[in-house]
Every structure is written in C-alpha cells, then in structure tokens.
Design a protein that fits this description.
12 helices, nine-stranded mixed beta sheet, FAD/NAD(P)-binding domain, seven-stranded mixed beta sheet, single chain, globular, binds flavin-adenine dinucleotide, 459 residues, alpha+beta
Length: 459
C-alpha cells in the first residue's frame, strides 16, 4: 500500500497536501515527507528509487550542490547485480561499466577466475564484477528516481538537527541561502556517509580500528600497451601495494580512463625517525607521480595524465545500532571498511535494498502494528551481523594479503592464494559462499507469514 497524505494508516496529522514531487507543505509552511533520506550518495539514491518504485514518496536532503565526483567505488559484484536487475537497471549499468571476469594479483612491474562470458559474450549476473565510477552509478539512480515523480532531491540542504517522537521525525536543515527549515517525516534514513551528522545526533557510536597507511585514489588517462583478460589487478608489495582497474571500456593502444589506487607508506623513507608526509605533501603532483610510476607499465617517459586524485584514511568501523526510533542508518553512515575487494558500497547498496523492503512493509500495515518494532530491530541486527561476520573479516584479509609479507612468501603461504593455486572450483566456491549467500538480507523472512508485500516495479 502506497503512503499518501490521505492514507489514514500512515498519515502525518498536519499534512494538508502532497505534491507530486515527494513532499507536501503544511499550514505552518513546514515540509512533510513520508520518508526523509539524508544524503544523495549512491545508497540514499538507491533507497529513494526502490521506495519510488513502490510509490512511496521521499525527500532526499543533500548538503552539496551536486553528486560527489571524487574517485571512490568502482567495483560491484555478487547479489548487488540481482538488486540492479530487480530495479530494471542491470543492462544499463553493465553496458556502461567494464566487465571483469576475475582478478589478478601481481608484483610491482619489472614486471583466477570468477566467471567467463557465455557464447553471446555476456557474463551471468552475480558471477563477475562491473567496473563503473560510483558517481555515474549515483547519477543513474538519481535520473531514474526523480523521473518517477515520487522522489524530490533538495540540494544544498544540510541536516543540522533532529528530533523524533512516536509519530514522526523532524530535521532542522541549513540551506544555501543561509536560511533554516524544518522538514518532517514518518521515517528517516541516514545515508549521509562515514562522517554522518545524523548518526552523531542520534548518539550512536562507531567502534573498531583505523589502519596506519593512507590510500591515494587517482583517475588516470593513459594508453595501455596491453589490456589483459583480467584487467583488474592487485599489486602485492610490502610497501607500494595497490589496485589498478579500468573505469571504462579500454582497449590496448588507445587512450582510456583507469583507476590507480595506491598505498601511501607510513614513512617517506627507511629512516624510522622520519616524519610522515602531510596530506598536502602526498597530493603534490611530483609525489603522486612517484607512486604512479612504480605501477604504470609501458614506455618511459610515461604520457599518463592524472585527472582526479583524493587521499583517504582507512578504517574498520561499525555503528552500535542501525536503528533508533523512527530513524535508520544505511551505508557508510553505519559501517566503514577498507576499500580492497570493493565491499563497502556494495554492502551499503544491500543495506538500501533491505531498508527499502523494511519501509515498504511498514507502509503496508498500521503504524501501531506490534510486529513493526521487532522488524526494525531485525534490520539493524541482520545488517550488523553481515558486517561483523562477513564484510569486516573478508575486507581485512583482502588488504593484509596485499602487503602482509614479501610477494614470493605470500603466494606460497596465504590460504587464499594456495587455494587459487589448487584450482578446485568447489573449494573456491566454499570460500566465497559466506559472502555471496549471506551478503543480502531478505527482510520478508522476518515478517509474519501471509502478509502481502508487493515486489518493486521497474520505472
Ligand atoms: C578509494 C575508494 C575506493 C572504493 N572502492 C569501492 C568499490 O570498488 N566498491 C565498493 O563497494 N565500495 C568502494 N568504496 C567505498 C564507497 O566509496 C563507499 O562505501 C560509498 O561512498 C558509501 O556510499 P554512501 O551513499 O553510504 O555515502 P556517501 O557516498 O559518502 O554519500 C553521503 C552523502 O551524504 C551527504 N551528506 C553528508 N552529511 C550530510 C548532512 N548533514 N546533510 C545532508 N547531506 C549530507 C554527502 O554530501 C554525500 O553526498 C571505496 C572507497 C574509497 C575511498
């Protein structure tokens, strides 16, 4: 059942008119929306789209005037492909991204397989990785959500305050013009990233640890002399480890956009007393090039051009809960892991998927249904379980594998590499099973049997 201002089962009493753009204005001039989403990142926009497909109106509040263009996620795999299929966007996302049927691990240049394309040249969803810049993925969600008429995005609207009671949640918003607004909703989804204001306003703690190294993400235009079948590769090295991947369909001998993600050593040289470089020093073009030139193959001088760069700290952190009252956390606002293996945004998208289903169920029943609170708690406990038991250990092992020992030792001693070398498909399937089988949460399992929960419709 879609929530409208006239829906007595989930009505905000003071709403006196709902526009087609996702919000309404009450007699006091306050914006009202069934669901407030804080943050127009990919997680918030996927959630908006999934809810819009079920005719649930949302207002997305984004503090910036645009989608964040910084180089971040690029790889999407496993059950995330099934989510893309269910929202009708798999073909577009797969066509725009570069397909990688596996990964390669290599040493610094002096110098496996997840799947193979079928006879039609296409991969099976869930059995390969789609490589596409996060910003483009968010843009695809944005275009599709706004064209439904059920999603309204308010740019340059920064959430600064929050209060809630048993009927509604209100946020205080600072606008670009220096003004202040109050926006009220029935539920709120905090998709506002790792520094989440909403998480702090709710008093929810993050626990875990931070890694000592920094990580430099660069988008680089270059002519690759060779594009191997597994164009995504990890460089194994105790100090200069990294990840290299195309960001579009690249061909040997032609210019294309690549992502080079590089570890920044803790110390600039072997002297243990040397001071670490400042962030500004790391981002100096000469230093960025000194790291890049260790990785880029092909003739020298290299003709590469750095088009974007951004420096990150890496963490393994989890919020103590992803639900408080009428508010939910999803994506980086709830959990952060190091980027090796591309698990962060994929997990956030699967949070968005689970939360969309949770809210869809909530809007199909009475707000006083006693089964709702246990369902809301279940969203939090299930998604936290996935992070703590699957994503945290997998992503930590992915990172340590790249730099834990000398490359020739790692290849003989690491359990994953030795399993790859044995090449037993059943053994490899067993290794990946916890990730692929447990990553996505079907919230319908936790709702009493016999209740009608409608499938989302493609826009
Ligand atoms: C180098 C790098 C590579 C990565 N590679 C991968 C990968 O290949 N695959 C993968 O799955 N993950 C990857 N990740 C992780 C991925 O980038 C994050 O998990 C992802 O950005 C999380 O998305 P999000 O929508 O939760 O948050 P964000 O993308 O951070 O979006 C949050 C949004 O909220 C807005 N906001 C913040 N505060 C407020 C406020 N108070 N009011 C209103 N708006 C607000 C922000 O402006 C922002 O637009 C990578 C990360 C890095 C750094």
């Amino acid at each position: 059942m879609a929530p409208h201002a006239s829906d007595s089962r989930h009505e905000i009493p003071t709403a006196n008119g709902t526009s087609t753009d996702g919000s309404s204005t009450n007699a006091n001039g306050t914006d009202v929306a069934p669901v407030i989403i804080v943050g127009a990142g990919p997680v918030g926009l996927l959630l908006a789209l999934r809810l819009a497909m079920n005719q649930i109106r949302t207002v997305v509040l984004e503090k910036e005037p645009w989608l964040n263009p910084l180089p971040r996620a690029i790889g999407y795999h496993g059950p995330v492909h099934n989510v893309f299929e269910e929202i009708g966007l798999y073909d577009q996302i797969a066509a725009e991204g570069m397909a990688s049927g596996g990964y390669a691990w290599r040493k610094l240049p002096t110098d496996n397989s997840m799947g193979k394309p079928g006879p039609d040249g296409k991969f099976t969803p869930g059995h390969y990785s789609i490589q596409l810049a996060q910003c483009r993925l968010a843009e695809i969600f944005l275009e599709n959500a706004t064209k439904t008429g059920f999603t309204k995005v308010l740019w340059e609207h920064e959430v600064t305050g929050l209060s809630q009671d048993e009927h509604q949640v209100s946020v205080k918003v600072a606008t670009a013009s220096g003004g202040e607004k109050v926006i009220r909703g029935q539920y709120l989804a905090a998709c506002d990233g790792s520094r989440s204001t909403v998480r702090k306003l709710l008093g929810i703690r993050l626990s875990g640890h931070s890694w000592p190294e920094r990580f430099l993400a660069t988008d680089v235009l270059r002519v690759a002399p060779v594009v191997p079948d597994f164009s995504v590769h990890f460089t194994v090295d105790e100090t200069f480890w990294g990840v290299v991947t195309p960001l579009e369909h690249v061909e040997a001998g032609k210019q294309g956009l690549w992502r080079y993600s590089l570890a920044v050593p803790e110390k600039p040289n072997d002297d243990i007393n040397s001071a670490p470089l400042t962030d500004e020093q790391v981002l100096e073009p000469e230093y960025v090039d000194s790291l890049l030139l260790r990785q880029i193959d092909g003739p020298r001088p290299s003709s590469h051009v750095v088009v974007r760069k951004s420096l990150y700290k890496m963490h393994q952190l989890l919020a103590s809960t992803m639900h408080r009252g009428r508010c939910f956390l999803a994506g980086d606002s709830a959990h952060i892991n190091n980027p090796i293996g591309g698990l962060g945004l994929c997990t956030g998208l699967l949070d968005g998927d689970a939360l969309a289903r949770t809210l869809q169920i909530a809007f199909s029943t009475s707000p006083s249904d006693p089964n709702l609170e246990p369902l809301f708690n279940r969203y939090s406990t299930e998604r936290r379980w996935v992070f703590q038991n699957v994503i945290h250990p997998f992503s930590s092992a992915n990172k340590i594998r790249l730099h834990g020992a000398k490359p020739d030792d790692v290849v003989r001693e690491d359990w994953y590499f030795t399993a790859l070398a044995r090449g037993d498909p059943k053994e490899l399937q067993d290794i990946h099973r916890p990730l692929y089988a447990q990553w996505r949460t079907d919230m319908r399992k936790f709702w009493p049997a016999g209740t009608d929960v409608k499938e989302p419709k493609a826009p």
